[in-house]
Amino acid sequence: MGTLYLVATPIGNLEDITLRALRVLREARLIAAEDTRHTRILLDHYQITTPCISYHEHNKLARRAEILAALQTGDVALVSDAGTPAIADPGLELVQACLAEGHTVTPIPGPSAPLAALVASGMDTSRFAFIGFLPRQPRERRELLSAIVDLTLTVICFETPHRLLEALRDIATTLGERQLAVANDLTKRFEAIARGTATELIDHFTSHPPRGEFTIVIAGAEPGSERKRDRQRLRAQPASATPETIASHLHQLAAQGITGSAAVRRAAQELGAPKNTVYDVWRELFGKSS
């Protein structure tokens, strides 16, 4: 039985590929690529003639059987358009299918946009989380950002150029004026990393319309910031957290697209109310219909 190799490929500069990756791409029976036209540029550059088929979000079910059949007689190399496969692409499902069939899955390490942006950001690299692409829908995006507001570790995500300004506005509103690094076209000719607060970066990208592929690195919350905010709000609003006030606040958050546990946590923080009290009000308002 063959091995599925997860081969990391350059995220921009074609020189950023390992000797082992080139050998595996040459020796494999088949290469499964997210976009064969994109991968062909790399293969032609290194004179690799291994047969190549597409494997992407829209054909993954049809291609899976073909790839599993190929693994019965040889090795298959999986590559994404750029970077390490199975991160923010359908490669994960193929890995799971191969493991279920008893095939060996072997990583060939190499370029990774999240790690490249992280190490160049100047932010804490000892603890971090990668959350993939921010959701397209504003409501879902704000819910996700609300869920990470108290994380003290560095957070990394992807965003497209046409949604970047909108995402930065939501980051400013939800996470406040913490430090960010926004990297685009890493390792390419016009590589750039802009650093600053969300408000500062909104000004920057308003003047310099975003183009390319963006990775956002977000500084974590300061340790103890949630408890500090709770104490400040309790002192500032000692009598505000009545059931009626909590209900009104939850309705306002729902109108902004923030619901569920994110709304409960946000309302508790902003009103200085115990989370279990806010949760009881939320259940009374929304729980029976959810």
From TrEMBL:
Keywords: Cytoplasm, Methyltransferase, rRNA processing, S-adenosyl-L-methionine, Transferase. InterPro entries: 4pyrrol_Mease, 4pyrrol_Methylase_sf, 4pyrrole_Mease_sub1, 4pyrrole_Mease_sub2, rRNA_ssu_MeTfrase_I. It catalyses: cytidine(1402) in 16S rRNA + S-adenosyl-L-methionine = 2'-O-methylcytidine(1402) in 16S rRNA + S-adenosyl-L-homocysteine + H(+). CDD domains: RsmI. Residues 3-201 form the Tetrapyrrole methylase domain. Its main location: cytoplasm. It holds the Pfam family TP_methylase. Coiled coil: none annotated. It is an enzyme of class 2 (transferase). Belongs to the methyltransferase superfamily. RsmI family. NCBIfam families: 16S rRNA (cytidine(1402)-2'-O)-methyltransferase. This is Ribosomal RNA small subunit methyltransferase I. It comes from Chloroflexus islandicus.
